[in-house]
Amino acid sequence: MVFFSRIDLCLYTQKKKCEIILGSRERMSEESCPLPVMIFFFLDLNREIYITEYLSAVLNCKVEPTPCISLNMEGLEKTDTIVYENLSKFKGEVGNSPKLVELLSSGVNIFVNDSFSQSHKMFVSTVGITRFCYASLAGFHFEESLYKLRNASGTCR
């Protein structure tokens, strides 16, 4: 399973090559990945349901919202993409709780950090989960933000 730390960029699905635009982000397109996707993002649950319906239609695959994090993932194993609610609502997220890390990392093989603005913080969703993943990668948005930061530091007035 692939863990994405943001939802407003490209998603990888088992079904097909995907190309989506969410928000004001530029269009991203990537080849399909043979793994399901787990997405965490910072929206309310009501909005999450709308987002999952939209993603299901755009990606032509099953996208399910889940309001909680649990070891019991019954019914979700047939889902290509899982969308969780705002992780900042969990007190273990900020404290890098070992229990929350264990729950989130269950079944995750690859971590994609695409949240540049959160990457310096010791959160479960940015640091803790990486200890249990086969690979940890920077996403497109992360790389773009890093590139802009490097260019800004070289600019003279």
From TrEMBL:
GO molecular function: ADP binding; ATP binding; phosphoglycerate kinase activity
BP term (GO), one: gluconeogenesis
Cofactor: Mg(2+)
Example of a GO cellular component annotation carried by this entry: cytosol
InterPro entries given in the database record: Phosphoglycerate_kinase, Phosphoglycerate_kinase_N, Phosphoglycerate_kinase_sf
EC number(s) reported in the record: 2.7.2.3
Listed name of the protein: phosphoglycerate kinase
UniProt source species: Trapa incisa
